[in-house]
Design brief:
Length: 339
């Protein structure tokens, strides 16, 4: 793999002065008519908007066609990525940018986005002391660890349950659903209520931090996170669908047998690639942590953002109550029996 020297730093003051591309409120579509008075637009720096949009487009196409760079990553020429980063940033927008991005694969576009994240003067999401305290609190850490343990138990028990000959699969799904929702003491309702409270505290604090950022920085972070979560969810959906067809099992069986492991692996991979570049830690926390511990904490934080912060949290114009979970029940008809 060829390497190249890292280039100039992008300051947030500079970011605020760059040309922008407008996106609708869900931060996915950038309409041709950018001047429509009927919409309230979110302006995103053009170079970021173009790169991330093209990444989502090409990744979605890979997902539809078969294996992606998530399962089968190839070699990437770092010098090529550096040249593309310099040229796109110099042009900002227009046919030159479109031509450069069209020539890159989804994996190369991911590396291009990662290169721009490296060039930021500090990570896009440099968390406050308050958010760091929340993520380190005993109650929150215990709940998040419990959820992780439950997912591992779910995956392990799937293999054990489905290996039982003549096992009634509806009963398997009910047992797995209750395992997934139950807390360690067996009081499922109590465990779900505590988890909802923890997620809502996290979402409210994330919203507060986004509201306190410089607009260009906040919009860039929102846009990147919204598109990454969109692509991950689409990847999980299509990957489960493809594996279901290959194995010849039903949709219900796939949700119980295949999806937990696909979801776990996808979240881990994206968190490892993007967490250290997007998440920044407060000075006090950095002083108490080794570089290795800082890296792990960033990855875990990004994983939690992907897992527990819903898409609405990243929308630019969103009321607080729309981001929170008022209900403690699952959707109607959920196989776990709590719907």
């Amino acid at each position: 793999m060829a390497t190249a020297t890292r280039q100039r730093v992008i300051t947030y003051d500079e970011l605020a002065k760059l040309p922008t591309k407008n996106f609708e409120k869900y931060l996915i579509v950038s309409p041709m008519n950018q001047d429509s008075p009927e919409e309230v637009w979110t302006p995103v720096p053009s170079f970021i908007g173009s790169v991330v949009s093209k990444l989502r487009e090409k990744f979605d196409q890979e997902i539809k066609e078969g294996d992606t760079f998530v399962e089968a990553p190839g070699e990437v020429d770092d010098a090529r990525i550096q040249r593309a980063a310099d040229e796109v940033y110099a042009a900002q927008q227009g046919p030159a940018v479109a031509r450069i991005l069209d020539e890159l694969s989804a994996q190369e576009l991911m590396e291009l986005m990662r290169e721009y994240l490296r060039r930021m003067e500090e990570p896009l999401f440099s968390m406050s002391d308050r958010l760091a305290e929340l993520l380190q609190s005993g109650e929150y850490a215990q709940l998040m660890m419990h959820r992780s343990v439950q997912l591992e138990r779910l995956i392990d028990d799937v293999q054990r349950f489905v290996s039982v000959e003549a096992q009634d699969f509806d009963e398997v799904i009910r047992r797995l659903g209750r395992l997934y929702h139950d807390d360690e003491g067996g009081d499922g309702a109590k465990g779900r209520a505590e988890e909802v409270q923890a997620k809502n505290r996290l979402r409210a604090q994330v919203r507060k931090e986004l509201m306190g950022m410089q607009p260009a920085r906040s919009n860039t972070l929102r846009f990147v996170m919204r598109n990454i979560t969109y692509s991950i969810n689409y990847y999980i959906y299509k990957r489960v669908w493809r594996l279901r067809l290959k194995s010849g099992i039903s949709h219900k069986e796939a949700k119980g047998v295949i999806q937990p492991e696909v979801e776990r692996n996808a979240l881990r991979r994206f968190a490892a690639q993007l967490g250290p570049l997007i998440i920044g830690l407060p000075a006090g926390l950095r002083a108490r942590m080794s570089p290795e511990a800082q890296e792990k904490f960033k990855v875990k934080t990004f994983h939690d953002l992907l897992t527990f912060v819903n898409a609405r949290c990243w929308f630019t114009f969103q009321k607080k109550e729309k981001m929170l979970e008022p209900e403690l029940r699952c959707h109607k008809g959920c196989a776990c029996g709590f719907g």
